């Protein structure tokens, strides 16, 4: 049996327990990029892309830190903090994604942008027409935003939450938590999260390896609530965003640093692979806000 066949067989059998899931991940990592692409194509013929973040949310083997290079392999993803709540995510296949896109993505035109509309710094009404996919994360007259989109080697989906619309009024489905599944990793952006998540939210999100968290503590939910989200999603890396100066940022680090270690990155970008996830959760600070 070929490695790609092993990978597909394990996808079918993931429900058999933690050991099967561990074998799935190891087999998929070992399979060549061409075989992985073939599996995705076959999957597309059978129906919508399958979320591996939901499939293995309840069972994940431990991983050890490993050095990563500057060139993206099929098992790497690059993440750059552009500023405020915008990150630029890049896959090995060249898919570029800007989160909470307000018209600026660090001087590049991404292929995909996601947006939320709590404030104008999180969206634009005039996205560049060269952008292939513009994903607005709020409800319209057609109902809540719903995305389950495969773009080359990235699966993008969302789970909606409510936002404050002024005073105590809540706007239903006004925010989206966007999830990006790439290189075996599950990357989640909380957007402008205003309230604690329900069990139904967690069930629809699955697991999140890398969690982008708003940390202003006033416009969005406070540190205690954000830490609860990170715990429930079993996030290995927490990326702070959406803060206004050092006071709110230091308060977040003081609150969460009691439970999660803090590491400051040398620059705004880093490259990550599945086997480089830390064994214990950490806050990774990327310069700029």
From TrEMBL:
Origin superkingdom: Bacteria
Decide whether keyword Signal is in the record: yes
List, alphabetically, the PROSITE patterns matched. Answer: PROKAR_LIPOPROTEIN (PS51257)
UniProt keywords, alphabetically:
Signal
State the signal peptide span: 1-36
Among its keywords, does the record have Transferase? no
Gene3D superfamilies, sorted: Ribonuclease Z/Hydroxyacylglutathione hydrolase-like
Query: InterPro entries this protein is in?
Result: RibonucZ/Hydroxyglut_hydro
Protein name stated in the entry: L-ascorbate metabolism protein UlaG (Beta-lactamase superfamily)
The organism encoding this protein is Breoghania corrubedonensis
The record lists the lineage as: Bacteria, Pseudomonadati, Pseudomonadota, Alphaproteobacteria, Hyphomicrobiales
């Amino acid at each position: 049996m070929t490695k790609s066949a092993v990978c597909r067989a394990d996808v079918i059998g993931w429900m058999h327990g933690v050991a099967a899931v561990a074998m799935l991940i190891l087999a998929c990592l070992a399979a060549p990029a061409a075989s992985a692409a073939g599996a995705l194509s076959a999957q597309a013929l059978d129906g919508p892309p399958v979320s591996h973040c939901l499939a293995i949310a309840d069972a994940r083997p431990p991983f050890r830190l490993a050095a990563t290079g500057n060139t993206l392999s099929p098992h790497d993803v690059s993440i750059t903090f552009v500023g405020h709540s915008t990150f630029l995510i890049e896959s090995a296949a060249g898919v570029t994604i800007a989160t909470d896109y307000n018209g600026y993505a660090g001087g590049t035109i991404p292929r995909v942008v996601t947006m939320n509309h709590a404030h104008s710094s999180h969206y634009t009404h005039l996205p560049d027409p060269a952008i292939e996919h513009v994903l607005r994360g709020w409800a319209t007259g057609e109902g809540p935003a719903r995305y389950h989109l495969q773009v080359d080697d990235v699966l993008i989906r969302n789970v909606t939450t409510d936002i404050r619309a002024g005073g105590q009024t809540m706007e239903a489905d006004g925010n989206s938590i966007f999830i990006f599944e790439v290189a075996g990793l599950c990357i989640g952006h909380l957007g402008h999260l205003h309230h604690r998540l329900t069990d139904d939210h967690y069930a629809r999100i699955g697991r999140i390896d890398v969690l982008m968290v708003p940390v202003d503590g006033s416009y969005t939910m406070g540190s205690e609530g954000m830490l609860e989200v990170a715990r429930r999603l079993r996030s290995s890396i927490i990326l702070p965003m959406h803060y206004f100066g050092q006071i709110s940022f230091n308060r977040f680090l003081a609150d969460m640093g009691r439970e999660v270690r803090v590491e400051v990155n040398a620059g705004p970008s880093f490259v990550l692979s599945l086997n480089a996830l830390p064994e214990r959760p950490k806050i990774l600070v990327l310069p700029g806000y």
